[in-house]
Amino acid sequence: MSVGFIGAGQLAFALARGFTAAGILAAHKITASSPDTDLPTVSGLRKMGVNFTVSNKDTVKSSDVLFLAVKPPIIPFILEEVGPDIQPHHIVVSCAAGVTISSIEKKLSTFCPTPKVIRCMTNTPVIVREGATVYATGTHADVEDGKLLEQLMASVGFCTEVEEDLIDAVTGLSGSGPAYAFTALDALADGGVKMGLPRRLAVRLGAQALLGAAKMLLESEQHPGQLKDNVCSPGGATIHALHFLESGGFRSLLINAVEASCIRTRELQHVADQETISPAAIKKTLLDKVKLESPSLSVASASKVSLFTNKSPGGKKN
Description:
By secondary structure, this protein is of the alpha/beta class. The chain is 47% helix and 12% strand. The chain has helices spanning 10-22, 40-48, 56-61, 75-82, 101-108, 143-154, 167-175, 177-194, 199-219, 224-231, 237-247, 250-274; strands spanning 3-6, 30-33, 51-53, 65-68, 91-94, 116-121, 131-137, 157-161. Strands 3-2-1-4-5-6-7-8 form an 8-stranded mixed sheet, sandwiched between helices. Helix 4 links the parallel strand 4 and strand 5 (91-94). Helix 8 (177-194) packs across helix 9 (199-219). The longest helix has 25 residues, at 250-274. The radius of gyration is 21 Å and the shape is elongated. The model is unreliable at 276-318 (pLDDT under 50).
């Protein structure tokens, strides 16, 4: 089995690193493509021994499982480009937030009558084999195709099949979840520094606290509320701290964050459906600088966006 990534940004880097670390794939069985050869992630992929090319078509031709690891607005044009090279044996896995299976099947069916499409949502902790992934299979994908993807993704964390209409909510929860955790950890470390701890120690203690709490929850059958109560002694320091969190709307903020991410995910599908980027604007050396012309986007029409994931292996995933 060979795996290809169209897009060589954060997601491709994280998955390739996870697959090779898990031993499920050798680096030479992985190919990634991007028009931007200066991405730090490209350098990281090459150091791993992953095959790199600037040609998306070459990636398709050398892959059995093809991950679409680009921004949602670019998906229609990527499909237009590589569609003629998609064969019945290919399993096309979309990682683009909000882009539906039906929209991909519609595009590919022009070239391949029965394209095998799977939609998945994962997150960046796959790089340390602690990812959270869900997937839904398309009209023509076999059960075996879904199981093959599950085998791949289970090697880098938790993976399960869901109905497609749940994936937007998953994006808001676990897809964006690492960013929530990093933000919380940054704030916790700031609190530790304010009270006198060295920054390095504060970050390590905060991270270990979150890691330990997550592991306790996953290895127990207790409700998170019960585990929280177990930490709170009557009249103690922790219950006083939780009172401050509740007073600041901590729970509501997290609920609202998941909802906001989910809603934006649904908006991204609308953007992709509109095909607002002129195909003529997609140039091999400027894919990360195409101007978005749609008024539905929350940026000015003159602004520029990266069409792939962020440029640093240590950066945040959108």
